[in-house]
Design brief:
Layout lengths: L3 H7 L11 H14 L7 H23 L1 E5 L4 E5 L12 H11 L6 H17 L4 H4 L4 H26 L1 H4 L3
Antiparallel strand pairs: 1-2
Helix pairs in contact: 1-3, 2-4, 3-4, 3-7, 4-5, 4-7, 5-7
Length: 172
């Protein structure tokens, strides 16, 4: 059974329990929080994101093995086995890492953050260019690595766009 702290981290402050689009809600929260975090594009940031990926694999595995879920209708805790073992909806820590990766590629502007949000969500939903295959990896690896790759692809596209049209994402 996971602890309340592990649950809060794994579900990104319980956004994973959103009845509508939990991954999108988590990505929006991450983008909102990172708006207020100073930008640091250094090797240390890559090391931190790598560590967070391994933490996410571990947390995902803990959640997959069995967990307590909130019943939003009664606000009660219900013990059950995870019916969706491959990638449970409440586990949105992978969105935190993928969205963060994407945000590193854009300028700190409203337009840049908006583009990063929508690009990451599109790559995460459609899972092109190998992300779909990574999702088939076992347990926490599949949960995390498809979003890491989606974040990398979205970041690469936005970085290219910003390189060729720097004024586009820097407007405001």
């Amino acid at each position: 059974m996971i602890t309340r702290f592990e649950e809060a981290v794994t579900t990104v402050l319980w956004t994973g329990y959103s009845p509508v689009a939990p991954a999108t809600v988590a990505s929006a929260l991450v983008a909102g929080i990172l708006w207020f975090v100073p930008r640091a594009q250094s090797p240390w940031m890559l090391i931190l994101l790598g560590l967070l990926t391994f933490v996410g694999v571990w947390l995902s595995n803990r959640y997959i093995d069995g967990y307590e879920v909130r019943d939003p209708g009664r606000f009660a805790l219900v013990r059950r086995k995870n019916p969706k073992k491959e990638d449970p909806d409440p586990v949105v820590f992978d969105e935190l890492v993928g969205q963060w990766i994407t945000l590193l590629a854009v300028p700190h502007t409203i337009l840049g953050f908006s583009a990063a949000f929508f690009a990451f969500r599109a790559f995460d939903i459609f899972k092109p260019l190998g992300a779909g295959q990574l999702q088939k990896l076992p347990r926490g690896w599949g949960v995390m690595l498809d979003d890491v790759l989606a974040g990398l692809w979205a970041a690469l596209c936005l970085y290219g766009l910003h390189y060729w049209q720097p004024e586009l994402l820097s407007a405001f």
